[in-house]
Amino acid sequence: MRNLTGPRLAAMVGLVLGFAPIANWLTAGRELPWWSAAVMEWLVLGGAIVLLAVAVARLGGATVERAAAWCRRTALAPRPAVFGAFLALVAFTLALWFAFYCYGGRFFSSDEMAQRLQANLLLQGRFFARLDAPPEFFSAPGVVITPAGRLYSQFPIGGPAAIALGVAIGAPWVINPLLTGLTALGVYRFAAAVYGEPIGRASGVLFALSPFVLFVGASQMNHVLTLAGVVLALVGLVRWDRGGGGAASAWGAALVGAGIGVAAATRPYDAVAVSVAIAAFQLARVARDRRLAPSLAVQLLVGALPVAILLWANARTTGSPWLFGYDVLNGAAHQPGFHVAPTGVPHTPLRGLQLASGYLLRLDRYLFEWPLPGLLPVVVALALLPSFNRWDGLLLGSAGALLVAYACYWFDGFFAGPRFLYDAVPAAVIFAARAPGLLAGRFSGWGRRAVLLVMPLAILWAWAAPGRVSGVRIRAHYYLEGNPHYKADYGAEIAGAGLTHAIVFVDDGWHARLDARLRAGGLSVFGADKLVISADACRLQHIADSIATAPPGDTLARLRALFAAARPAAGAELAPVAGLAPVQQVLLVRGQPLAPDCLRELMADTIGMAPFEAFLPLERFEPDGRLGGPVVFARDFGGRNELLRARFPDRAWFRYRPRRNPDDTTAVVVPYYGR
């Protein structure tokens, strides 16, 4: 029973959740449809890598030993400060390159756009805009519009504040790559201080070459700032632990407080999960050395500052320090726990197990993009650890707390990998860096040499080979080709049109128009989307019209009537509309003639669409917080656009017409005409 404690128990959990496709078993294969192909690639290519390592180790003999010794001397030759600076530069450069190669220096998700909107508000000294127009014209994913007309992002203040700094210097795309470089430096310094220089440098290299780290680091997602705060806290924790209760401990405590505080101001749920492990570590340490206790006051004071800013920002936006934008947008169902989620689906412990399994299985693929499972070296290291020290417990505890926390949270988050486990990457790479040495110690001769060759060969393959399921090149190409509408330079196009006092209507598809109108009618974000993807679009169009003209009344009764009316008639067969992109897709009753108004809606989509949320970063505001500036952007509702005449009576009206292909050189901003 003693052998099943500590790291070996963690290895067993990792083996079960990270290799047995429980998520697929629970969903009939729907959760990870690529899993079988990935396993086949790992068996074939991973097996080939292992065989190649064995062949080189056996045939190379002393030559391989000399080469390995030279590599070790070369890697350890630079002074720590020089190596750390070089590592940070490599991580920064790679993340910056991917920021432009994959994302065009702009966006890949609606989350980033909503945070840019908030960043623009902050730069104008505001926490929210004032909307005095029908909300459906300006609603977007991740944006809160209250009945009183407040408009702001749902995200905590930390992420938008960091983006605002980048916008202020004219380079919002540089902030996260810079943070990625500094985080790589922090991972190296922490691992070197705790596990020695060789493990520290190996950990830093694995972190800096992790595609998961780099693709997220190239984005404008708030996970990057959160991880930077967590790693800063880890670096400070080492100084606090070894300071003997003096000034060094106080400085270390200040770093811990600053790191956790920044993480809390950016992603509070992540910060709470990681803080549980750090608090347990510190309390156990103080129990053995009371001299460290006074420095905890410094930690609390420093950490309280960013948390106070978070609470102040909440009070200015939502009206309460303890109420977050997420909860305003989605209601109490947004909170963690086992209950009916905002999607209408019950979040149960079984579904939590499904999510936890899915997150770890995705780490196998996305963490390193090797021809071997990414968690394999982590599990090997945990299984072979000769002893279990408190730093191992800290890393395992923080990663485990994150996994449990997000198993208890209903949403399945993905961005370049399992983004909810992004803060667990330092623990993963540190254990992975220890695996070759631990395993090689079980062998001698060519067996030892072969073990030490596997990881470098896997890294080389991931970065150099094309790959079919995994690989840096195929993943970068996927992000290059993905979400082209989000990466278009709309700002340059609008600037080229030379507009000075105008309103531009953006057609983002019948799907989005229905979604926006249903939300304006009282449905939640997820409730509206669920209805749009499951009901007859023409019938929803008529229901939305009736809601818009009905007098105010019992909102709950109206919503119940809406859901009841949206059910298809007996025998009606719903079918998707051919030729529409996935983001535009709507359902119609097969064989039923379309009403004229529905036909107009459908035909509008054939002209072209652009996501309205991509124009959020271009919105500007008057000193009183109302929409203004040279150009106001609004969702195009055809004839309903006349509702904005009274609000913008003296502006020239235009439409945005997306380019059909790269050779299309016609104007993208055209004079307004009705439809």
Overview of the structural elements:
It is a single chain. The protein is mainly α. The chain contains 28 helices and 11 strands. A hairpin with a 4-residue loop joins strand 2 and strand 3 (150-153).
Features:
675 residues; mainly alpha; 2 domains; four-stranded mixed sheet; three-stranded antiparallel sheet; 28 helices; 11 strands
Helix content: 55-70%
Query: Main beta sheet, described?
Result: 4 strands, mixed
Q: Give the uncertain stretches in residue-range form.
A: none
The geometry reads as globular
Structural class, from helix and strand content? mainly alpha
- The averaged pLDDT comes out at 91
Query: How many β-strands, per DSSP?
Result: 11
Rounded to the nearest angstrom, the radius of gyration is: 27 Å
From the N-terminal CA to the C-terminal CA, the straight-line distance is 74 Å
Measured by DSSP, the beta-strand proportion falls in 5-15%
Number of helical runs? Answer: 28
How many domains, as an integer? 2
User: Order of strands in the sheet with the most strands?
Assistant: 9-4-10-11
Topology:
Blueprint: H1 6-19, H2 22-27, H3 35-60, H4 62-76, H5 80-101, H6 110-123, E1 129-130, E2 143-145, E3 150-153, H7 158-168, H8 175-195, H9 197-208, H10 211-217, H11 223-242, H12 247-266, H13 268-288, H14 295-317, H15 325-330, H16 349-366, H17 376-384, H18 390-407, H19 425-440, H20 445-464, H21 472-481, H22 484-487, H23 490-497, E4 502-506, H24 510-520, H25 525-532, H26 537-549, H27 555-565, E5 574-576, E6 587-589, H28 596-607, E7 620-621, E8 627-628, E9 631-635, E10 652-656, E11 669-671
Parallel strand pairs: 4-9, 4-10
Antiparallel strand pairs: 1-3, 2-3, 5-6, 7-8, 10-11
